[in-house]
């Protein structure tokens, strides 16, 4: 707020040409406008952004936890498959004479299907994490933009009323009168 009043105070030092006009000096007006817009965005957007990021962080952590549970289940199935493999190897020793090649084929198929299942679960976990991250980023971008726009419009609408304008002019005239 001090910067706003300083900008009105600095009007006292400007030489008056006898008429009112627009300041067309882009280098003088753009930094002021940008600083006001950035200040409004930072003031109104930082709390909302941190809440959104915290919520997204919790959702992502829950998704990771669920994926890890799925991975744990896959590891458990892998251990069961290895136990079945050991059992199949014992049976292979017993039936080596009758069908050694058939048992080896079954063993390889079992290992391959288990590894394929593990790969699929790992891919699913990675895709889920990536999808959730992208969705979180898009939601945060959209909300920040909407809230920043609403905040800026609300601030501009609340600040640009006739009473405030007249009070500012009166205050500046009083200050100018006391300086003479």
TrEMBL record:
Coiled coil: 71-98
Annotated keywords: ATP synthesis, CF(0), Chloroplast, Coiled coil, Hydrogen ion transport, Ion transport, Membrane, Plastid, Thylakoid, Transmembrane, Transmembrane helix, Transport
Any one of the GO CC terms: chloroplast thylakoid membrane
A GO MF term: proton-transporting ATP synthase activity, rotational mechanism
InterPro entries: ATP_synth_b/b'su_bac/chlpt
One protein family per Pfam: ATP-synt_B
Note in the entry: In plastids the F-type ATPase is also known as CF(1)CF(0).
Task performed by this protein: Component of the F(0) channel, it forms part of the peripheral stalk, linking F(1) to F(0). F(1)F(0) ATP synthase produces ATP from ADP in the presence of a proton or sodium gradient. F-type ATPases consist of two structural domains, F(1) containing the extramembraneous catalytic core and F(0) containing the membrane proton channel, linked together by a central stalk and a peripheral stalk. During catalysis, ATP synthesis in the catalytic domain of F(1) is coupled via a rotary mechanism of the central stalk subunits to proton translocation.
Record's protein name: ATP synthase subunit b, chloroplastic
């Amino acid at each position: 707020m001090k910067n706003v009043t300083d900008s009105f105070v600095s009007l006292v030092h400007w030489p008056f040409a006898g008429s009112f006009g627009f300041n067309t000096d882009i280098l003088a007006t753009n930094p002021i406008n940008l600083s006001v817009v950035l200040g409004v965005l930072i003031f109104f957007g930082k709390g909302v952004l941190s809440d959104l990021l915290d919520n997204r962080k919790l959702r992502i952590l829950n998704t990771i936890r669920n994926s890890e549970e799925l991975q744990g289940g896959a590891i458990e199935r892998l251990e069961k498959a290895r136990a079945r493999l050991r059992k199949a190897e014992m049976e292979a020793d017993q039936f080596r004479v009758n069908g050694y090649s058939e048992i080896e084929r079954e063993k390889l198929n079992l290992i391959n299907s288990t590894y394929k299942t593990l790969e699929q679960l790992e891919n699913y976990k990675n895709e889920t994490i990536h999808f959730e991250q992208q969705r979180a980023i898009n939601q945060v971008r959209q909300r920040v933009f909407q809230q920043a726009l609403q905040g800026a419009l609300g601030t501009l609408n609340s600040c640009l009323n006739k009473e405030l304008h007249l009070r500012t002019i009166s205050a500046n005239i009083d200050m100018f009168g006391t300086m003479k």
